Amino acid sequence: MNAKTLLSLAKKHGTPLFVVDHDELRKNYRLFRKHFPRVQIYYAVKVNSDPAIVKTFYELGGSFDVASMQEFHTVYENIKGLPAKARQDFIWDKVIYANPIKPVETLHELDRYKPLVTYDNHEEVKKIAKHAPHAGLALRLRVPNTGSMVELSSKFGALPGEAVDLITFAHEQGLVVEGLSFHVGSQCTNPQNFIQAIHLSAGVFAEAKSRGFNLKLLDIGGGFPAAYDATVPKFSALAKKINHELDRLFPPEIEILAEPGRFLVASAGNAVSKIIGKAIRNEKMSYYVDDGVYHTYSGVIFDHCTYHLQSFKKGPTQICAVFGPTCDALDTISLAEQLPELEIGEYLYSENIGAYSAASSTHFNGFPPAKVVHVNE
Ligand SMILES: *Cc1c(COP(=O)(O)O)cnc(C)c1O
After folding, report:
1. Residue 153 has pLDDT above 90, yes or no
2. Is the dihedral of CA 346, 352, 354, 358 positive or negative?
3. How far apart are CA 197 and CA 220, in angstroms?
4. Which of 14, 131, 199, 218 has a CA between 20 and 30 Å from the CA of residue 180?
5. Distance from the alpha carbon of residue 221 to the mean position of ligand 1, in angstroms
6. Cβ contact 92:115 at 8 Å
7. Ligand 1 neighbourhood includes 98 CB (under 6 angstroms)
8. Quick check: CB of 194 below 6 Å from ligand 1?
9. CA atoms within 13 A on the CB side of 181
10. 24, 377 in Cβ contact below 8 A?
11. Is 320 a catalytic residue?
12. Which CATH superfamily is domain 3-18+267-375 in?
């Protein structure tokens, strides 16, 4: 976003401030559609569950990946005014409950909406058969996450060798397995992860078919990288490779979905904080700001992400440290930022901080999360 606009918003609304640019959300959504014409977008709500963001993707025709009842209800808010039949069709076609492990209370509540849910183990099949017998199933496969910034395969996913047994077992329990899903790891800059996962999936499709199960959909998950810097491969090149394999291995009647999160929202979020203190520590200028890793910069911890801090003021720079406002030394945003000499009351900002940021803000130490402002809504 334009730095001038950010500064005037910070002056108007106060800090810490988190600014979401909906034009950028739309731009990213359309870019994904353009490069993946065959793929339906299921926005991964956990990346930023702000209802206004969900609404913008809903208006663009998006579908949703939810992983808790709270996220389900955030999506449901947009459709609750529709007639019952339209609501049911929407959920059936456009919501995937993509958490392979679901509490029985959640399954019980989900059953009446007949959603598509993921699973990856026998105990989950038994739970679903008992508490959500009207759900459709997608089997989550474990696939390589090599080189992705955030690894997502050690916790979930059936081994490809177990897949057909798990599909058979679900059918024996009276459930229908609609297809497969996987996640190559978040901020995946290694196209081979997608390629290998698509190959593994094609193998499972073929084996399932030979056992009499016709799978209908493939969910290629998230992981599409945000263009944080010049080292990130071009999205169009990645899409080309993925599409080529999808078209080669999956006939057109197989429905392909994806659950992008970071790719859609990272560049739409901006954070502005105010300098509340300064000191020389370890011979380095250290700025203390009113936002930190327990708040909008939570991605430093949870997302293994680094964010650049920029000043609105120009001038000769030096290496500085930037700390958050809480008393914990963990609350360190960066130990090496090039910044000019700044005074208390001046501001710092970060771009590309829309994903996995405000979504995991806490109230630690009595500091509330940043105020959220939406522009171009
Ligand atoms: C987190 C998550 C996503 C979103 O991943 P991104 O890397 O942000 O695109 C998609 N699907 C599932 C199942 C997830 O857990």
Report:
1. no
2. negative
3. 8
4. 131
5. 6
6. yes
7. yes
8. no
9. 33
10. no
11. no
12. Lyase, Ornithine Decarboxylase; Chain A, domain 1 (2.40.37.10)
Q: Which atom belonging to ligand 1 lies closest to the Cα atom of 355?
A: 8
Positions of CATH 2.40.37.10 in the chain? 3-18+267-375
Average pLDDT over residues 50-77: 98
pTM more than 0.85: yes
DSSP state of 91: H
Q: Work out which ligand 1 atom sits closest to the CA atom of 260.
A: 9
Convert the pLDDT of each residue in 17-43 to its tens digit. Answer: 999 999 999 999 999 999 999 999 999
Tokens of 361: 């803000």
In this structure, is the dihedral angle defined by the CA atoms of residues 237, 238, 244 and 247, taken in order, positive or negative?
negative
Distance between start and end Cα atoms, the chain: 14
Q: Which CATH superfamily is domain 22-265 in?
A: Alanine racemase (3.20.20.10)
Q: Report how far apart, in Å, the C-alpha atoms of 103 and of each of 64, 67, 109, 177, 273 are.
A: 20, 11, 10, 20, 38
345/9 Cα distance (integer angstroms): 15
**How many C-beta atoms surround the C-beta of residue 165 within 10 A?**
12
Alpha helices in 254-373 (DSSP H): 262-265, 299-302
129 φ, ψ (degrees, to nearest 5): -60, -35
Helix and strand numbers, DSSP H then E, in the chain: 12, 16
358 exposure class (CB count in 10 Å sphere: 0-12, 13-18, 19+): buried
Q: Collect all residues with Cβ–Cβ distance below 8 Å to 32 and sequence separation of at least 6.
A: 39, 41, 224, 258, 260, 263, 264
pLDDT of residue 133: 97
For residue 98, the ligand 1 atom closest to its alpha carbon is: 13
Residue 222 DSSP code = S
Q: What is the DSSP string of 318-341?
A: EEEEEE-SSS-TT-EEEEEEEEE-
